[in-house]
Amino acid sequence: METKSNAIGTKLLAAQAAIKPVPKDGENRHQGYRYATAEDILVEARTALIAAGLLFRRGSWSLAPLPEGLVTKRSESGSEVIEQRDALAIIIWETLDPESGETLTDTTPYPLVAERGRPLDKALNAALTSAEPYYLCGLLLIPRGGDEEVRDH
């Protein structure tokens, strides 16, 4: 019977166990809610990954057309409208264990919206930047909110 190493899984488990809730220190005054900032999420994720002996990076990316009929609601000037998104950024994420040589590779789509004042190159960079904390929240099961809020759920 062949035994397969799962060192990266063991280290991800350690990183998930070490993660602390990320407080909602950001505020959207227009919509009236608080949120965990991308920077705070990245700092907490980086700390836990490094302590577990893992490297994380965004690998390559590509653009893909949207499936037909995919629309989303968007609030503009207080009213909701249906808007067609322009494309999807297909992003490859890599979590690497330098000790064992194992790599976990995931691919995620993220909407790309080019509009007036945001040309395609800016929309692509916004998508790549915005997707990272969301991916890390899922990978490491990062609780967003204060300790009391996390305990209540």
Q: What are its keywords?
A:
single chain; 153 residues; alpha+beta; two-stranded antiparallel ribbon; 4 helices; flat; disordered C terminus
Describe this structure in words.
The protein is an alpha+beta fold. 34% of the residues lie in helices and 31% in strands. The strands form three sheets. The chain has a three-stranded antiparallel β-sheet with strand order 3-6-7. A hairpin with a 6-residue loop joins strand 6 and strand 7. Helix 1 crosses helix 2 and helix 2 packs across helix 3. The longest helix has 21 residues. The termini are far apart. 18% of the residues are buried. The C terminus is likely disordered.
What's the short version?
With 153 residues, the protein is of the alpha+beta class. The protein has helices at residues 7-18, 38-51, 120-140, 147-151, and strands at 26-28, 33-35, 55-64, 71-76, 79-84, 87-96, 103-112.
Radius of gyration computed on alpha carbons? 18 Å
Unreliable stretches covering 5 or more consecutive residues: 147-153
Q: Helical content, roughly?
A: 25-40%
The number of helical segments is 4
